[in-house]
Amino acid sequence: MPELPEVETIARGVHARVSGDRIVDVWLGRHHEPFKTAPAKMVKGLEGRVILAVRRIGKHIVCELGEAGSGRKGGLQRSVEPSAQWIVHLGMTGRLLVTTPDAPVAAHTHARLTLASGKELRFVDPRRFGRLEWRDLHRERPFAAPGAEPLSIGSAEFSALFRNRKLAIKAALLNQTLLAGVGNIYADESLFRAGLRPGRRAGRLTRAELERLRRSLGEVLHQAIELGGSSVSDYVDANGVRGFFQLEHRVYQRTGEPCRVCGTSVRRTVIAGRGTHFCPRCQR
Question: Is 274 a catalytic residue?
Fold first, then answer.
């Protein structure tokens, strides 16, 4: 499943290519699973809207939409409040791609948004675990992540998230109601860089250890965004390009390989139902 860096990379790429553009036509596929909003309602809500901005919230991509005429004017973006949102969750294998209408249509394409510029925004998802939702902000609240933002959380707030919690720190990092966007890859990698065993009880970590983890998590996420995310399965960015952070992985999916710091074999265990990778010497 794409995690925070992958979703951030896609959102930035889509924003750069379609912000200020207008949706002139919408085609939705016949499978019902991807649609949290009824397809007919989604089509009616999207057509004619201007894409004001595209951003990441947690693991979701949120397209902020305005009324016709609220986009770019004279080459500058007008400052207007969005009136609707198109919310994309990529699920396990979802892709949000910017292409042209004449480009071959991939199997398992569930949405095609034709834009006034001639571009096309497509949602593709072979396993159909992704979700599409439309919100009318005159009647509904804007989408919000359930947990804190890992890229901006402060020391005191981060420490408070784990106070008195009995679950393993790896499981706590994966809990989206605590931190929104962190998944298996970046939990493993940040715990390695912080020198912490993934099975340690979250509530027993010291303030110094938690601060080390907070800093490591931020560094890992920022580096992964710079390298376009980790392509370990189906992930590609908005242009269909794979990321490169998988080349920097120090423990994730490196079971039995030598630790890049001490040479000890990387081990694998299962925590919270997820495969978990760590170095038994570097992490304590």
Answer: yes
Note the pTM of the prediction, 2 decimals.
Answer: 0.91
Active site residue 165: no
Count up the domains in the chain and report the number: 2
User: Residue 283 domain-assigned?
Assistant: no
Catalytic residue of the set 128, 200, 215, 274 = 274
Residue 261 lies in a domain: yes
Identify whether residues 178 and 257 lie together within a single domain.
yes
- Rounded Cα distance, 54 and 16, in Å: 9
3 is catalytic: yes
Q: What are 34-86's pLDDT values in tens digits? A: 999 999 999 999 999 999 999 999 999 999 999 976 555 444 445 589 999 99
Query: Which of 81, 104, 136 is the last residue before a domain boundary?
Result: 136
Tens of pLDDT, residue by residue over 94-120, are: 999 999 999 999 999 999 999 999 999
Question: Out of 3, 64, 133, 189, which one is annotated catalytic?
Answer: 3
Active site residue 17: no
CA distances from 65 to 49, 50, 85, 163 (A): 6, 5, 5, 39
Q: Which domain, by its residues, includes 274?
A: 155-278
Q: Which is catalytic among the residues 56, 59, 122, 214?
A: 59
